[in-house]
Design a protein that fits this description.
CATH superfamily of the largest domain: Reverse transcriptase/Diguanylate cyclase domain
Distance between the termini: 76 Å
Helix content: 40-55%
Radius of gyration: 26 Å
CATH architecture of the largest domain: 2-Layer Sandwich
Shape: elongated
Structural class: alpha+beta
CATH class of the largest domain: Alpha Beta
Number of helices: 9
Low-confidence stretches: none
Largest sheet: 5 strands, mixed
Order of helices and strands: HHEEEEHHHEHHEEHEEEHE
Length: 301
């Protein structure tokens, strides 16, 4: 076998073994930088309706010499490698080695795209398609790790169960489209109101779970709950563009703290659920912290 082809295949096999897309991008960049003396690399993925920048080695100076390579992955998707060189001499060197570079990128693009698809399918399996929040599958796979870290570092985790007040009335009066708009608005409110490290999960039709990492105490969780209630009460959903009719809704929040109230994730969620039930019994826009002392006084029926 031609030594060049053999080397390309060897690198490509290495790419297939990498788990992270970022590692694949960097391996491709470092390899062609070393072998073909390029300065920078940008990788784009283009579909019918969008162009996504997958990788950019650094802030590219666009008056550098550019060579563009397109590889068709399927009838709707192409991957572009934009290869930059700083001097005409370097660019001429790339042109001289063009057949080898094209062959290498053809192999690499296939491995890159397969990993991209794998990641996309995985994300689809853990993301709620309506709201963009995580779904219960994410909870099943990842959250046990959070509790393990919490135990090891002796840090508390807050579990906030959030429900839309009178959500069924929205569906009855309007429709599921308006209901979905309410849920999207709530998801955005939750994400904007907490840290990027906190986790928003859609649990059921109108209920969400917010996992607060490293909470100091229950007072800290209560402050967050009241902030969520206040922020969402101010959000408006436009339900008729012609009349500018808007709809405002409210939420209730139930809270439990790990490990104060529970020893495992199922128990923590169950107790946050009990607290949410009690908050809703009190009225709209209410929060309630789970308490073992009060649990026997809660009337579920």
């Amino acid at each position: 076998m031609n030594p060049t082809c053999e080397n390309i295949i060897k690198i490509n096999e290495k790419l297939k073994l990498l788990n992270k897309l970022e590692d694949i991008y960097l391996t491709i960049y470092n390899r062609i930088k070393e072998e073909y003396n390029i300065s920078e690399l940008e990788i784009l993925l283009k579909t019918i309706d969008k162009t996504e920048s997958l990788f950019k080695s650094k802030e590219i100076i666009y008056d550098d010499f550019l060579n563009s390579f397109k590889y068709i992955e399927n009838e709707n998707t192409q991957i572009y490698f934009l290869v930059y060189s700083k001097t005409e001499k370097d660019n001429n060197s790339i042109i001289k080695e063009l057949p080898k570079l094209k062959l290498a990128l053809e192999f690499y693009s296939s491995s890159l795209y397969n990993k991209y698809l794998e990641k996309s399918i995985h994300e689809l399996s853990i993301i709620d398609p309506v709201t963009g929040a995580f779904n219960r599958s994410y909870l099943d796979v990842y959250v046990d790790n959070i509790l393990s870290i919490s135990n090891r570092e002796q840090k508390k985790v807050g579990f906030l169960k959030i429900g839309v007040d009178q959500f069924k009335a929205v569906i009855d009066e309007f429709d599921y489209t308006i209901g979905d708009m309410i849920l999207v608005e709530l998801t955005n409110t939750l994400k904007e109101s907490v840290r990027i490290s906190d986790i928003v999960i859609k649990m059921s039709e109108d209920e969400f779970l917010l996992i607060l990492l490293n909470v100091i105490n229950e007072t800290n969780a209560t402050i967050v709950a009241d902030k969520l209630i206040n922020n969402f009460s101010q959000r408006k959903v436009i339900i008729d563009n012609n009349t500018s009719q808007t709809l405002k809704k409210t939420i209730c929040v139930g809270m439990s703290i790990f490990p104060d109230d529970a020893t495992n994730i199922d128990d923590a969620i169950k107790k946050a659920d009990i607290a949410l039930y009690e908050a809703r019994n009190i009225g709209r826009s209410k929060s309630y912290k789970y308490s073992e002392e009060n649990v026997n006084t809660i009337d579920f029926f």
